[in-house]
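Quick start: what a row looks like.
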Amino acid sequence: MKLGVCSAIATFATLSFTNAFVPLNLQRSGGVTSRNVATETEDEVSARTGKPTGTSFLPEETIERAKAGSPLEKVKLKKDATSSWVDVYEYARKIREGEMTWEEVEKADIDDRFKYVGMLHRAKRTPGKFMMRLKVPNGIVNSDHMRFYADSVEKYGEGGVVDITTRANIQLRGVTIEDAPDIIDGLHARNQTSFQSALDNVRNMVGSPLAGIDDKELVDTRELCNALNDLVSLDPVTETRGNPAWGNLPRKFNMAVSGSRDDFAHTHINDIGLQPVAHAKTGEMGFNVVLGGYMSIKRVAESIDADMWIPADRNSVVTLCEAILRIFRDESERKNRQKARLMWLIEKYGAEDFKKAVIKEVESYQRDVRIEGAQPAATEPFERRKLLGVHPQKQEGKMRVGIHVPTGRLSPTECRDLADLADKYSGSEIRLTVEQNVILPNVDEDKVPELLKESCLGGNNRLNASPGLIEGNVVSCTGAQFCGLALIETKMNAEEMGKKLEELVEVERPIRIHWTGCPNSCGQVQAADIGIMGAPARVEVDGKKMAVPGCKIFVGGRIGEDAHLSMDPIKEGIPLDDLIPELVDILKTEFGAVDKTKK
């Protein structure tokens, strides 16, 4: 008999942790209260942690489908992935003490289960090295975090870098197994984690980068993003990171909470998107719910209107998301991973019947959450605001300063530069954006000129508070430098392209150019003004067709209230060496660019 949510929590409540992040076999005697598991199976309780397994929360029917499911489903059933941090600590100890090498780590651990610790092996490009993905709800970090990131990766040389992602998150590159425990401990000491940040888990919570400082704000997203992050990655019994209740999902899951009409969170490409809108009759602030948006190698889907509105309070938001997540966890596809995203389940139900299932689930929790039909969105003219540069806040005398980080890539030195700026000007706070840039909030207005003159900004430095309208809006996935799926190198090419286009043409508004190395579209090219996707290309050399790095080009994606995805490329098979002339032509014909006036 499998443990349900309530019974699993009840049985685990007898445990007393003194250090929840140290493997049990490394803790001192008396640090953990032993428990009687004679009547329970390994499927129900992890022998490594004493915590319920992710599988223990699944209904029998779901487990049976998982047993007949994809190879990855069998990997998750064989050994609980939510306990894999214990294995990381133990492998690290053995590697440090010379008992084994990283090559001897069990394949399913290093390739799959380690992802539940946030560690993704970059086997094809950098064998033995990992990308460690964090969870940074609402994209808010501080100067201490940035210095810790720098210290964590600096030892890895050129391969040790910090990336800001398109979910306003942080990824540390170059990490080795033997160093991972120290990084994990350092993150937890700073109230951050890498647990349950990759593979079949709920990804980073995206909110508004202007939360709490915006004069046009409808909802402050900070508390909501933190609450949702705790829902999916904080054990409610032990109050330690890693929540097994959501540790065996059928696929990844994305949530975004928008705080204003700008929709800086890009709700239209998330599994759950919450869009702020006032109730038409009462004026109460709440959220219209959109569902099912995602991007993958086989399908790109824009979210659909779920015809649901909830009040914008913590209880309503957490309850709705928990209900949808429970239905997704227990009922979604377990065999064909390409059909295991939420949109496929909605289509299986039908949108109206899925709405009824969600309402029934919410009502079963008995938390006094009401769900009404979608409320009419505002129709008054509204222009999406800029995040880069200097802008006034709602607080008198305070300014926000958006700083461009080319392609989101930061060296250890640049991390420390941002930390120093934050300590000096923004009360140590730094905000990340889905455009892979940063914002320093709460800067005293009379300090802005001094900030803009800081030696780490502008000039020959990569960081810049006043980039061009093209280079400042370039977004890029990881690319072939580290990612084995990428067909082309993206970050270096994207950064150089931005500079080159600034030299060649002038535009009147920001032009968003996104790069992605493969059809998985981590760089979200379908949402860009211009999207560049790695793809095969050929050129003729001595009368023979030769394969070269190439791309497809997408045009016309939109974000904000009028969001739209550009599904089909307008050009294919373009060699990267020929890309600049193609982009100049598109910028002129589609976006009104003109040749740069030579000074």
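That is the whole record. The chain has 15 helices and 23 strands. The chain has a mean pLDDT of 93.
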